Input
Amino acid sequence: MPLYEGLGSGGEKTAVVLDLGEAFTKCGFAGETGPRCIIPSEIKKPDVSKPVRVVQYNINTEELYSYLKEFIHMLYFRHLLVNPRDRRVVIIESVLCPSHFRDTLARVLFKHFEVHVLCNYCMC
Output
């Protein structure tokens, strides 16, 4: 939770900013000078010896959905420590990001985490 959350003039909470890169993910809150955390874009599966990369464009949608669900859960509840329902989300992504990845990420955020507002920002 941001330290200054209760000091604002209004009751509006700052948006969560997510930048899912192929190697590292940066996440934090809008209005802060930098990301709260920079972590590898991977999850550990018990049946696989090496960590699994989350940002993969060549896997099926169900598997990608599962990876993103687990990874975003870790971001919200281990690193950001906020309820996803209470915050707007800004996604920073590459222009070259495939549409099936964008769709799956949006579906995870809307259906599983019940995010109310999602904004995509494409980096050139």
Remarks:
- The radius of gyration is 15 Å.
- The beta strands are 16-20, 24-29, 37-40, 42-43, 52-53, 89-94, 118-123.
- Residues 8 and 23 are 35 Å apart (CA to CA).
